[in-house]
Amino acid sequence: MAKRKITRCHFYNHDGTPIRHARGLGCTRGIDVCFFAHPSEADWATASPPALLYQDNRGPSNRGRRSPSPRRQYSPVPRPRRDSSLERRREPIRDSRSPPRYRRDSFGQPPRDRSPQPSAPFDSRYRDRSPRPRNNSPRPNRVPPADINMPPPPPTGPRPLKDAPGSLRSPIPFSKPPHVRPTESTSPSTPFPPPPSTRPPLVPPPPAWPPVFDASTSQSADPIAEEMTAEEKRQKWTERVSLLSQVIKERGNYSQLETNAHTLRRLVASQRFESFSNEDKADTRVQLQHAEARSREKKQTVDALITRLAEAGFWPIVAPYDTQAFETKYNDMKETMLGLRDGVAELQNSIMAVTMQYIQRQQPQLAAGLSTQPEAGTSDRPRKRPRLFETVDMSVDIQPSEPVDANLQQVITQMQDRLSIIDASLADIHNDLTQHVQNVMDEFDSKLDGKVDELIERPISAEAGGESLQRLEKAEEEVKTVGSEMDEISQELVSLITDFGSGSRERDRLEAENRALQDKVAKLEQDGRSNREALQQISKENAALSKALAIRLAGPTHQDPPAAEALFQRIEQPVRLRIREEVAPLLKELQENINQTLSKCMQEVQGPLFDRLSQSLHAAKTISEWIERDGQGALSTMPPPNNPHR
């Protein structure tokens, strides 16, 4: 089943006409490739207009609508581009006429009243113009002529929102009469058309948009909700962040499963699969079925999580901001600037064409020379485009004494006035249409929410009539429609989150590369400093070697031999050191020999001496034991050691 297209292609106007651009006319991608609705598709009636609409007013249909305006006198003083009576005060798209919108999860703000608010009729204060000091040259009131082919007023119904017969959001067809471009004659003898003598009527203001819902049908209103505490807000915030994290995680898992299933499908459809054995084929098919089943289950899980996230509304704690108003203002400003640019370019082309006609009438030879130059569409773009007032002065001030200059100036002035009037009218109509569409959407949302809450809170009786059942079925259909739209919005939200994640990963990768490059640059700088220091050292060594080489090449110098005393003093210390170095090993060897001789003699004396000492010690020990055994009496009978026996 093909995916439903919810946005119109920006290469087509609201009426389905293609827009001219650099690559051609209309969308060049084709219906099957383009993701947006084309006029030939059924989704064009229900799709919303694009956020940015390209405008190209240089087509033949728009060029043919320009017609002269009433005569006015020429003034040499440069005048502003736009008349003060046409100066518009830009009002925001959402003002005091439309009720404020609130969401359920917006904390710190009053709840939204679900009772439908009727859209206010057209207010004349939006067409007030603030005067501005101008030059004192007399000029009549500039109004569009009676034969101007103005576009039809906008329809008296809202923009088509849903292609369903019998529904409140049924599309209302936009009718636009075909425009036939008047024939233009390029003959040099064709005079300018005379200005109209009658005062044509002003451009009619757009009609007031009727309200879609009746305020008397509202029967339910939400009670004032109590503000949540800080703990409840924190818990709500934690749940929302957890849900968002879970959505991202499950989405990644689903992408991986889908990739695996796609790989298996390609393997089964390839020629290589035919060379597998029957068992391998069966296993591969089983794996494919299992992967597809897991992918379907994961997709259902992701869809359920995204639905929960979409139904949660805005982020808690943070107040919702109206991004649509900013986007509408930006689109309005951009469309105005694009239209002004195209109008100025078209005006320059028209002025150049009028100038060429005038030159052809006055100087045919000069005109023939100018006609040989390449056209603006086939030659390269000049470096500097001439300004509008310079082109006007060049085309008007050729011969101020001739009466044809007044007609030429009138044509230029009428074209400028026509451009200003159309610009102001289109801007007013676009603003009113946008305000009406916004009011209709607000009323529809409030009405739908009120009906749904009323049906949910009110118990269904078994004796309910057929009318109540029909209303309930209709409300259920509306809820299903809104649910499908929310699913599409959730899919867009998931794609935006995925793009943001890929952008974050790319930024992290670039930061890592930047840090690696910085480290590499620092290392290279350090290597450069070390190389410079080594180069300086090598330079110093080269200088010293060069100096020594120069001295060597200069040759030795002849000197007188020194005296004997001086020579002895010079060689005394080296001789002593040399003698010491030669004698020290000999002295060491002599000391070792003496030590060995003493050790040998000590061993020879030590043997007999120790034998005698051991005998003496044995005798002393025997005597001491005898004395201890016999006591002191034995000592008294013993003779003195030094007295001889008498």
Describe the structure using short key phrases.
646 residues; mainly alpha; two-stranded antiparallel sheet; 1% strand
Describe the structure.
54% of the residues lie in helices and 1% in strands. Strand 1 (20-21) and strand 2 form a beta hairpin. The chain has 646 residues and is an all-alpha fold. It is built from 10 helices and 2 strands. It starts with 19 loop residues before the first strand and ends in a 9-residue tail after the last helix. It has a two-stranded antiparallel ribbon. Helix 4 (323-362) packs across helix 5 (364-371). The model is unreliable at 53-225 and 369-404 (pLDDT under 50). Among the domains are: 1-54, no CATH class; 235-320; 573-627.
Radius of gyration: 54 Å
Number of helices: 10
Shape: elongated
Q: Strand arrangement, largest sheet?
A: 1-2
How far apart are the first and last residues' alpha carbons, in Å? 158 Å
How would you sum up the major sheet?
Answer: 2 strands, antiparallel
Structural class: mainly alpha
Unreliable runs, pLDDT <50, ≥5 residues?
A: 53-225, 369-404
Beta-sheet strand percentage? under 5%
* Element-level helix/strand string: EEHHHHHHHHHH
Number of strands: 2
Helical residue percent band: 40-55%
* Overall pLDDT score: 68
